[in-house]
Amino acid sequence: MCGRFALDVSADALAEIFAASAPDTEAEPALARPRYNVCPTQVVLTICSDGARRAVPMRWGFLPHWYTAPTDGPLIINARSETIAEKPAFRAACRERRCLIPASGFYEWRASDPKPKTPFYFHAPDHPVFAFAGIWQTWRVEGYDAVDTCAIVTCEANDAMRPIHHRLPVVIQPESWGLWLGEEGKGAARLMHAVPDDFFALHEVGRAVSSARSDGPALIEPLNPA
Q1: How many domains does the chain have?
Q2: Is 171 in contact with 100 (CB distance < 8 Å)?
Q3: Please, what's the largest Cα pairwise distance for the chain?
Q4: Contact 113/76 with Cβ under 8 angstroms?
């Protein structure tokens, strides 16, 4: 799964990287600064396309249309690639509303540890910014403001991730961004697989990241640099 990530690139720089229109950072000030502990229910930057690419702020936490309130059911931050096309919550979004969710790294806690679990930071040495596969949906319910919501697609872990966790976020490579965004016809389903084992590097980090109130570049520093 993916429950926390980092993004240390400005919104304007991301718009340039993804050839997208820039978001309104005055309306969403958090998007204008580096973030080292992006948490569920917070606003994240996504890249969408309706013929032209747009950088769009969304709530990380997908809300199915039948939820009558944001807390009406489980918090959905991930969607399993194996069942995404079949689940009622996701199948329309999987066909029609795919997005990219930029990141510079993400955290995972070793599942086999007793509590408190050990956090690790994953980053891509050859890709300072990469893109998670995402799906999105606008949630509209009477009594609430309409909100764009998203989830990160996950797949079975590769060999590098498996000692830490059994799931891995799906990463869309730059040459496939257009296909995932629906700009290049059909075939996006074949993109939902694990990256090669050497794509990510990882190191243990301090447990401060476990608090949603924590932020700052110290969170991604190796716990034992030697």
Answers
A1: 1
A2: no
A3: 55
A4: no
Bond into 196 cis (ω within 30): no
143 Cβ partners below 8 Å, 6+ apart? none
Q: Which of 210, 198, 205 is nearest to 221 (CA)?
A: 205
- Inform me whether the pLDDT recorded for 226 exceeds 70: no
- Average pLDDT estimate for 13-30: 86
For residue 25, pLDDT over 90 is answered with no
- Vertex 133: Cα angle to 130 and 134 (nearest 5): 125
Q: How confident is the model at residue 224 (pLDDT cuts 50, 70, 90)?
A: confident
Q: Is residue 212 part of a domain?
A: no
Structural domain for 37, as ranges: 4-106+127-199
Is-contact 58 48, C-beta < 8 A? no
Q: Which residues are known to be catalytic?
A: 2, 108
Helix (H, G, I), strand (E, B) or coil at 174: helix
Q: Is the pTM of the predicted complex or chain greater than 0.85?
A: yes
